Amino acid sequence: MDKEKTLNKPQAILFDMDGTLFKTESLLLPAHQRLFDKLREEGLYTAPTPPAERMMGSLGMLLEDIWKVVMPDGSERAHARANELLLQLELEGLKAGNTELYPGVKETLARLKEQGVRLYVASNGLEHYVKGIAEAHGMLDLFDGLYSAGEHGTKSKVHLVELLLQREGVSSAWMVGDRSSDVEAGRKNGLAVIGCQYAGFGNPDELAGSDVLISSFDELLGLYASSV
């Protein structure tokens, strides 16, 4: 853990989903090739399947922006169909039960909740995807709310977090995530930012501006215990 300062004890903690709670590659990599095979079958995309690393590197973006990075040569119709297919394949994968959380996620969340911390998800993903992960991994009861760009139509994580804080009446919180969008959302909403270094999706500068960097999820327990 790279600790730069003592944090104020939060009323709530907000978590990104992909790369923070959920080991996204356990679901996304099996779906990636199938998605592009289906697009080619339907005549919507003719190029070779883009590298999976391109998809993984774009996690944290809004879905409409992900396709601009992953298949910039694809038509609007192909992008729209890719949205439908990805959600379908991801929900099928979640039901199959072969996906993973990062080590210690459920145990850490449960201990934080026992100590009276309100727990939320703030994700740029689709509503059914975010809720599907929480349901598949038995986490629904741990959270006070699951907020997603897909459900609320927000155009950035900054606005999603702002909406969450207002609706839930949260006055002090930490933002925990692995991407620059999480750092920005925390900073612009006056929150302490905990940067997660263990996913490895982004570039080394992704988490610049975080108050604290952690290399395993359970380090949050020590941070909370030492906060004032």
Automatic annotation (TrEMBL):
<dbReference type="InterPro" id="IPR036412">
    <property type="entry name" value="HAD-like_sf"/>
</dbReference>
<dbReference type="InterPro" id="IPR023214">
    <property type="entry name" value="HAD_sf"/>
</dbReference>
<protein>
    <submittedName>
        <fullName>MTA/SAH nucleosidase</fullName>
    </submittedName>
</protein>
<dbReference type="InterPro" id="IPR023198">
    <property type="entry name" value="PGP-like_dom2"/>
</dbReference>
<dbReference type="Pfam" id="PF00702">
    <property type="entry name" value="Hydrolase"/>
</dbReference>
<dbReference type="InterPro" id="IPR050155">
    <property type="entry name" value="HAD-like_hydrolase_sf"/>
</dbReference>
<dbReference type="InterPro" id="IPR006439">
    <property type="entry name" value="HAD-SF_hydro_IA"/>
</dbReference>
